[in-house]
Amino acid sequence: MGGQKFQYDESGGTFFYFLLSFLALLLIPSTYYWWPRKEKEDPEKTEKECQCNDCKKKKLVLQSSEPWKGTKQLFRKLLIISGWVVLVLLAYKVSQFDYEYANFDPYEILGLPAGASVSHVRKAYKNLSLVLHPDKKTGNEKAFLMLTKAYQALTDEESRRNWEKYGNPDGPGAMSFGIALPSWIVEKENSVWVLGLYALVFMVALPTAVGMWWYRSIRYSGDQVLLDTTQMYYYFFHKTPSMALKRALMILAASFEFEKKYNSEIIERPTDNEEVPHLIKQLYNLGEKNREKPLCYLYSIKARALIHAHLSRIPMNPSTLDKDRMYIVKKCPYLIQEMVSCVAQLIMLAYAKRIPRLPSIETIENCMKLCPMIVQAMWDYKSPLLQMPHITEENLKYFMSKKRSVKSIQQFSQLKAEERRNILRSLNDDQYNDIMKVVGKMPLIDFQVRTEVIDDEASNVITAGSIVTVTVTLIRHCMKKLFGDETVQEKTCVADSTSENNKKEGENQEHEEETKEQIKKPVWQKQQRKGGKKSSKKPGTKKQTQKETKPVIQQTVVKTNKKEEEKKPHLSEKKPISGDADSSGDENEDSYDEVDRSEDEGSQGDKKGSSREDDDDWEKFQTGLGKRERVLEGRSKQSHTVHCPHFPEEKQEYWWVYVSDRKSRTLLTAPYHVTALVQLEEVQLKFTAPRWPGSYTFTVCLRSDSYLGFDQSQEIKLDVKEAPEVPTDHPQWDISGDEAEGKTEGEPSDISEYTTDEDVDVDDVD
Asked: Could you tell me which residues belong to the region Disordered (predicted)?
């Protein structure tokens, strides 16, 4: 377009607008997220927390771990305040910018009312020019130019027409596009400095930052574990398929995160040459003479000695070895999770490719056992009661008597208040209250399991080679629920709101309702009670009613076998109507009492059944959709704080859930790490059913990574039926003779890797 021109900002005014907008975009969210907020102090927090000596020491450790916290908060405040001060100054400067012809009003400039005569205009111009003329002491060149423009706009006819028409006495101006950068940037004298700044930022600083980030990221896995450490785990677990607990601890201590070459945070002190050998002499069966690399390296022996001392609760020098112990112990939970993942992947890989060196189930369980040992600072052979505060080896003798033998915290919680106080009679009231506070907050998991084949018409009939889905429902309560005395009436933890008798609003209620609906009886049994007419009772109904009073896991075990027997006749009855419509209608009447008698009973039965199947499919789709949305939102890492006074960091309750075959010592599903069990969590584990029909018993395991003695397991029994034959008469499923022969040749080698309850012989099956 003609008359256009592009120019830089001569006065730099538009550049200030740019700075103002850019600074506001940074300051507003930064102030909201980074302004230090004072945490709300709970006046009852001290009363709720444990006051044992170890917990007090841990508080001091946590406070000392952030020595610059106050300084950082002060610096952050000053930085944000200074940013707002600069923003206010920029806003004030921008508000003072006065453009020549923005809202140009000659009467206002001359100080006259609108419509004043020419004589008044000339008189006002004369008086103001004597004051604003540049030759005068009070002169102002810019104001005098504006005064002259105003005088011309009111006295000259052409200028007046331009002002009335265009708002400018000089007429229409050309459209100009400016760049919000000051003009000195493109001046020849400053070109070298500008180019140097661009080269420094885009050719040096930016590539260096990206390179450092990339070099660091390629060294670590997604869980911030060194890839070299992961590779070492793979090597040792493949080398030793059946690994003992102490060897797993040796491999954990050999992680490269504890070597200064790989981790600059590791501190090597000259005093280690004296303190570490002295510590090794106090430890038993450390294995320091092992010659395997890197198990024989000095960093590995030192880390192993510190972990052994931590598990034995041996006091160390707080300024040297104890600091190293706390750093190593803080890293262990992440490394143990990586070890579990490595073993699981090796098992699945060996299982898929039939590799002979298959890691055993004991190996992965020993790795899992390491985590609660390190969190609670005790060996696995010690009594779980030592996890309670103020309890020592001397106090354990009071838990054993002729009348009772208390070996776990759960058993201790189920005692009456008088019995508990009698056992702990050697402790004072404050110590006893600390124990009850800690035990009352410990987890009590309602562990429910059910099995089904989701993508099949008969979800409770498991056929050979089908995908079995094991749905594990975890409902967390507090151990205070087992106290069984007046303390139950006190305030309980939030998890108690998930009990079946309480009705809460929100998502937790929806999850509970979904879980209960899935555990209930199938729809066709439910409709028999709703109908106006009594349906004919079938054999086995009374037995099934008795089964409903049993726990959920027993229902699940029964459902797998008993539903198949009861559902088979109904499945045969619900077939397409052909020929005798009356008979088919009578059969469907037994299962669906709400069918309208005015229409054809057989067709209505099919419609009713199809609608219910559609409803079930829609509910499953909605449930799956909700689960996908929760997965996309990300997995939370917050659950409940663990009482672990010897662990130098705040620890959250996490759990492992998996399915295993104890007879063949194999792992069927990769362990799922539950990290957000606040009230209720539902996990789906999938595996392929055995290839041969028969009765199989598998075990669903729940393991804690924070407490010893809180693991659970439940057996599930699968009655695997023979898979239906695939129809071969369809033209698209025609198989050539060579392919059919090849398939027949490969069938004898397709032997089930599972062990049946009847120990079926493969030759008999053939």
From this structure: 491-644, 721-766
